[in-house]
Design brief:
The protein is an alpha/beta fold and 327 residues long. It has three domains: 43 residues, 434 Repressor (Amino-terminal Domain) (Orthogonal Bundle); 126 residues, 3-Layer(aba) Sandwich (Rossmann fold), CATH 3.40.50; 134 residues, 3-Layer(aba) Sandwich (Rossmann fold). Helices cover 44% and strands 17% of the residues. The protein contains twelve helices and twelve strands. The strands form two sheets. Strands 2-1-3-4-5-11 form a six-stranded parallel beta sheet, sandwiched between helices. A six-stranded mixed beta sheet has the order 7-6-8-9-10-12, with helices on both faces. The longest helix has 17 residues. 42% of the residues are buried. This is Transcriptional regulator, LacI family.
Length: 327
């Protein structure tokens, strides 16, 4: 038979109300708390979370919706959010949209039904445009993907500056024809493309751009065709780690040597970035800080619902390796 609060109270020698106060973090004496926790351990009691949700609007659960778990960046974001939430005494309910706006809408409704305490979202491009039309009864924080003006708290990296930094670095290494492959399904890809264009034009160079969905197979085919053409650039910037990996595969397939035939620089410092030869020059994103700050923003918004909106723009770190070696 299932163990209930009354069973725990009987073994602890206290009232059921005292058990509830201990389990709910209420004020009780140390002696009572010790008795109850020992009784919980002895009985194996587990709270009925569904019933608790019905009694309270607080679930101590943070929802997390990311755009594409295939992208290693979002795996890292998920780990960072979960770690920060655990340290704050909260749980994480996770959903992956696969860059599908319909799935995203379904998961947003799901989070409302589950009465999460707050929600962190890395939205699709279409979802980002429609979020302002929703009415949420919990705090929502945008992570990684946000426009310049939002009605939610925002935790992002400065994508414009990061892309400009990669262009400036490649140019300083002697590269004149610097191409760029950017994601077509997210605001981050668009922002990095804008930063790239600004930097290229400021140097008096000509932008050479392709935009694609963030799919490795499609990207590799497009890059193989580009690398085989007479219009191949001297260097290329990739807006995410999936594209960077595809560029390495395309270079191998077309017989190009990195960086002698084409230099490569990208985003996200994946473990393999320093293991391949030559290592890949990348913008290292502050993933752990983004996760920590997103959880902090949710908690602060719970405690202060009417506080001014917060927009935190973090800086990436340009990690220079052999893939962009000076010509």
């Amino acid at each position: 038979m299932a163990v209930g609060i009354k069973d725990v109270a009987k073994i602890a020698g206290v009232s059921p109300a005292s058990v509830s106060r201990v389990l709910g973090g209420g004020s009780v004496s140390d002696k009572v708390r010790e008795k109850v926790l020992n009784a919980v351990k002895a009985t194996g009691y587990r709270p009925n979370m569904a019933a608790r949700r019905l009694r309270s609007n607080r679930t101590e659960t943070i929802g997390l919706i990311v755009a594409d778990l295939v992208n290693p960046f979002f795996t890292a974001i998920t780990q960072a959010v979960e770690s920060a939430a655990y340290k704050a005494g909260m749980r994480v309910m996770f959903c992956n949209t696969g860059e599908d706006p319909e799935r995203e809408e379904m998961y947003l409704r799901f989070m409302q039904e589950e009465r999460v305490s707050g929600l962190i979202v890395a939205p699709t491009a279409q979802g980002l445009k429609s979020l302002s039309k929703w009415s949420f009864d919990f705090p929502l924080v945008l992570i990684d993907r946000a426009r310049d003006k939002e009605k939610f708290d925002v935790i992002v990296m400065n994508n414009h500056t990061a892309a400009r930094e990669l262009v400036t670095h490649l140019h300083s290494q002697g590269y004149q024809r610097i191409g760029g492959l950017f994601g077509a399904t997210s605001i981050t890809g668009e922002q990095r493309k804008e930063g790239y264009i600004e930097a290229i034009r400021s140097l008096g160079l000509k932008p050479e751009i392709k935009s694609l969905p963030s799919t490795a197979i499609v990207a590799q085919k497009e890059l193989e065709a580009w690398f085989s053409s007479a219009d191949r650039p001297d260097a290329i910037i990739l807006s995410n780690s999936l594209f960077t990996r595809s560029a390495l595969m395309a270079a191998r397939a077309t017989g190009l040597q990195i960086p002698d035939d084409i230099a490569i620089a990208g985003f996200d410092d994946e473990p393999w970035s320093s293991l391949v030869d030559p290592g890949i020059t990348v913008i290292r994103q502050p993933v752990e800080m983004m996760g920590k700050e997103a959880v902090s923003a949710v908690i602060q918004r719970i405690e202060s619902p009417n506080a001014p909106l917060r927009r935190l723009m973090l800086s990436g770190e340009c990690v220079i390796r052999g893939s962009s070696r000076k010509r």
